[in-house]
Specification:
The protein is of the alpha/beta class. It is built from 6 helices and 12 strands.
Length: 271
């Protein structure tokens, strides 16, 4: 069986570190479907595509007659109609990210024609505060939400809490600082867990991103007590962070959101 045609091309690549990169992808000869910020698309490459020199050999080669495919949250605005952007971390022994990491501008890949996912702002009630908590590349869906809606008044206040090991891994930090500077209801709180490895002393918060909640940094910055009556939380990233925040928020009276039972905690199962 023939492999699907590679129907998209890399039009921009930015490396943040040896393992973190932005990939901007444009369709070749077809139009992107409409999507809601927070949703994901599927990328794919043939099993014969080269792997990054930063990766390790695969334990088991993928089937020769199938594309290697994975879903990735979209980081670009839903109003950008000619490309999709992704925030990707190299998993050295992975199947697809080593192949994506080897791509350069002008290289072709496969982009799934369907965009889907329920981790969106569709169920957010009006006039609520919103806290978006992420680790690593879990920031991607929030970037799509901000780039699309930051000027549209979907929230009363917005806080973006982002954690990483090193400052170079805090993707989009310049853009987020600008969002916070130009929108008085937007707060950006970055934190790193290994400040001792910084080349320049880190002047912001340190520790895991959960500590911005447990140490009441958010409360102090906002100047009031967030509560289930006025605040919704979005969680995306490391499963340990997500589980710990779920426990902390549940203990504080928040409830995980489902379509059947609406709540104030919105969770993306990122991996």
């Amino acid at each position: 069986m023939a492999l699907p045609e590679l129907n998209a091309v890399v039009i921009r690549r930015v490396d943040l570190s040896s393992s973190l990169f932005y990939l901007r992808v444009a369709p070749l000869g077809w139009e992107l479907p409409e999507f809601s910020p927070g949703q994901f698309a599927v990328l794919g490459l043939p099993p014969t595509a080269p792997r990054s020199s930063e990766s390790v050999p695969e334990e088991k080669e993928p089937p020769a007659d199938k594309l290697v495919r994975r879903a990735y949250s979209i980081a670009s605005s839903s109003m950008a109609r000619h490309f999709l952007e992704f925030f990707i971390v190299l998993v050295k022994d992975g199947a697809l990210t080593p192949r994506l990491h080897a791509l350069r501008t002008g290289d072709k890949l496969w982009l799934g024609p369907k965009i889907t996912g329920a981790f969106t702002l569709a169920d957010l009630p009006p006039d609520q505060n919103v806290v978006m908590i992420a680790t690593g590349t879990g920031l991607a869906p929030y970037m799509s939400m901000l780039r699309t809606h930051v000027s549209h008044g979907l929230w009363k206040r917005l806080a973006i809490l982002h954690g990483a090991r090193h400052s170079e891994e805090l993707g989009y930090q310049d853009e987020l600082f600008l969002f916070a500077r130009h929108h008085e209801n937007v707060l950006y709180l970055p934190t790193i867990s290994r400040p001792q490895n910084e080349f320049v002393p880190w002047k912001w918060h340190t520790g895991y991103v959960q500590s911005l909640w447990t140490e009441r940094v958010l409360h102090q910055q906002w100047g009031f007590e967030p509560s289930p009556d006025n605040t919704h939380f979005f969680l995306c990233g490391n499963p340990t962070m997500v589980e710990q925040m779920l426990t902390l928020l549940t203990d504080a009276g928040y409830r995980e959101h489902t379509r059947q039972e609406p709540g104030q905690i919105h969770v993306e199962k990122y991996w």
